[in-house]
Amino acid sequence: MNKLQEPDAAAPTAAIKKFGGMLGRAVDAVEVFVLSAGTGALALLLMVNVIARTFFRSIYYAEELSEVLITIVTFVGVSYAARKARHIRMGAILEALPVKLEKVMVMLISGISAVVMFVLAYHSYNYLIFVKTMEQTTPSLRIPYWIFLIIVPIGFFMAGFQYVRTVIKNFTEKEVWLSPEQQSEYEEEAVMMARETMEEIEEEEIKS
Predict the structure, then answer these.
(1) More confident site: 90 or 157
(2) Is 180 in contact with 166 (CB distance < 8 Å)?
(3) Which helix (H) or strand (E) holds 147?
(4) Is the distance from CB of 137 to CB of 147 less than 8 angstroms?
(5) How many domains does the chain have?
């Protein structure tokens, strides 16, 4: 009976992992596209504006559009950095700790970071609503200013979501994960060393 029940017990976990993997790939594709397109558009806009200013006159809306692109790249980058473990951290201290304590510290830091990101998302959303009620518009394009701020609460919320995924990842996996997609460097190094050791042992057995 136990053997028959094992697949049923493992099925929800496998389904959750599969869904998480699909969601992660979808988020990755969107973030990479936005970051690439935003950075490319910003560089192109600045170059075109320099040429226009040199030979003709500056593009009147270049400053506003640059501000929008920088805001988008910044706050999408917050989520991307949290998902790829590219944020600032005390890696040397964490890797010097025992594996169990390192896992606990990563989960604690990720949990606190998630709370901070969600709080910032809440306050930035309130600020967005306040700006919308003020009906402010940009000086050049006359576009409602609140539209440019939509990405701020979204970026903070997505970063908090990635930190929550990090906590869940460390709960469900034996290894230490610094983010949903980035394993601890110490763990990766240990795996590589163990793999090399096994290969050396196999080579010696073949030779003998």
Answers:
(1) 157
(2) yes
(3) helix 145-148
(4) no
(5) 1
